Amino acid sequence: MKFSEEQIKDVIAFKDNLIDQISKHQEAIEMLEKNLTILDLFLKESSFTKASTLTRKTLIREDPSTIKNKPVENLIPIKRGINGEVIANAYVTPDQVSIILDDNMEINAETPPFKSFFIDRIIGEMKRKDSSDADNGKIQKESIIDYIINKNGSDIREIIIKNYREKERVNEIISTAGWSLTRMLENIKK
To answer: Structure pTM?
Structure first.
């Protein structure tokens, strides 16, 4: 079936309109997700696990043994809400967020809600938005957020998030990583 030049122009205009609508809706979705994060933090603060105890950390991709030499102000401890025990430390650089689990933490990467919530929902949504932005020419494909999970056997040792690009993302990554790790520890105990 052949289409006229006018029909092809209409289809292209329709496609551009869809792309614009998707972009607008993604911005609305991001705002809703930020609101959900705020609500989660509010609920955590009012529950037994205070959000204030789920602190943030920054991490540079390094050998974990060198981290002990980092200045204290560079370190954001991620604490378990129940007893304030440090379960990981985060280091932030302009290019990445690295979260290194404490040496005595043995958390299997398959323990929920790590993949379903932290990787698929939080990091996955950021990656989908970045991919859309790359497709629309807003960012380079090399700037799309990505992650690496370093393991010791099946246990998570380090989570590296590359190309986070936005300060708000750092806060969300660290707080949701802390929440996820705390829930994973609770699921292990069950």
So the answer is: 0.59
